[in-house]
Amino acid sequence: MKAKLLTIITLAFLTFPCYLSHAQDKKLDAYIQEGLKSSQILKQQNFQLQKAIFALGEAKTLFLPTVSFNTTYSTAMGGRKIDFPVGDLLNPVYKTLNQLTQTSLFPQIDNVSEQLVPKNFYDTRFKTTMPLINAEIKYNQSIKKEQINLQQTEIQVLKRELVKDIKSAYFNYLKSAEAIKIYENALKLLRESERVNQSLIANGSANPSVLIRTRNEISRIESEIEAAQNNKKNAAAYFNFLLNRDFTISIEEDSTYSKADFHSTINEGHREELDKLQTGININRQLLNINQSYKKPKIGASFDFGSQGNASTIFASDKNFFKPNAFFLVGISFDIPVYTFGRNQLKVKQTEMELASLNEQLIQVKNQLDLQSELAHNSYQSAKQIFESKATQVSTAERYYRDSFRRYKEGQLNFIELLDAQTQITAAQLQQSLARYDVWLRWAELERAKASYDLNQ
């Protein structure tokens, strides 16, 4: 009976890694595409991109004519008046003419008194304005174009960060799932040990203390399984959160990452963070051009067509709206500052300093990204070495168990020591599994640092 138990335990531990071997699939890439499509953050940024595109369209219309319709009506009573002595001037002349012609063709007229403020006055016009020369409008269009580039680059940065987060969450999920499998396998062996030891004790072939140790080990493994299951549940919830779906949806495991087939090389990509800074520099250059454009004149044209006068004339039976007071007005405007006590020059200096600061920031960020890439590469290589060391520990633990098994058969080792050997194998396999997924986590960080993931796949 004892030989049967040892054979079962030995075969189970030595063949345990075989459960990792199953058909390879590419579930993770599908999950990444799902996350990129459903991400709320990316949707928000896409709306911001559309906003920037509309802003460019608005900027392009600033060189086109603007037509508006304006009308005002005003009336007043009182106020200052101006007197015209028309009667005093013309009545003597009219009187003389009437005497000479012996007619009454020239009647007497009264003096006129008109108030200065308008009474019953209207002004209605269509006004058209159009800039002819304005450097600020030209540079503003360039800024809007750069803002579109900036938003597009921001979306790319967020996509790369999301890819890294999804991969890291997935590897953590696989890590917790495999830990459960290892613990469950160990628990299965301990259950079998408990059953066999009960039989051996009943037959007087084993000490009862063996059973106590076995049950203590079972209790410990059960608590480890409970903790691992909670870790798996939390890892699944976070992964589903990144995919913007229900937290309880099951996750399919990609067997590609359960093997030690690590990548040896990685392609160098281009960090969009540098593009963001370069776009910011381009925007500030256009702002500098705007601030320097105060030296250039602004020329515009305007055309007004309408009618103004006493409102009572509108209702004359033989007059339309624009008669008899219709008018048109053409104008050209010319604007250039002559002296502003140095305000414009100070604005230029401020923008130049901001531009110089951004150029230095670009150099600093480039060095930081190079450092990040180097550190990520070192971490990846270190993780691989740790995994190889853990693999050696598994091999050593297996050899130690085989030696313990041989000595136990020869009666030179008690069951407690054999159980310790079994525990060492479980611990070594668990550490190897965790080390494997740590390698993949470091790989995800390295891939992010080098911006090598193809976002267009």
Explain what you see:
InterPro entries: OMP_efflux, TolC-like. This is Outer membrane protein TolC. The protein is rod-shaped and about 165 Å long. 22% of the residues are buried. It is 63% helix and 12% strand. By secondary structure, it is of the alpha+beta class. Strands 1-4-5-6 form a four-stranded antiparallel sheet, with no helix packed on it. Strands 2-3 form a two-stranded antiparallel sheet. Mean pLDDT is 85; it is low at 1-25.
**What does the overall shape look like?**
rod-shaped
CATH topology group of the largest domain: Outer membrane efflux proteins (OEP)
Write out the CATH superfamily name of the largest domain.
Answer: Outer membrane efflux proteins (OEP)
Structural class, from helix and strand content? Answer: alpha+beta
The averaged pLDDT comes out at: 85
Strand order of the largest sheet: 1-4-5-6
SSE order, one letter for each helix or strand? HHHEEHEEHHHEEHH
Strand content: 5-15%
Highest CATH level, the class of the largest domain: Mainly Alpha
Please summarize the sheet with the most strands.
4 strands, antiparallel
Count of the separate structural domains: 2
State the total count of DSSP E strands.
Answer: 6
How many helical elements?
A: 9
CATH architecture of the largest domain: Up-down Bundle
As a percent range, the share of helical residues equals 55-70%
Outline the low-pLDDT stretches.
1-25
Gyration radius from CA atoms, angstroms: 45 Å
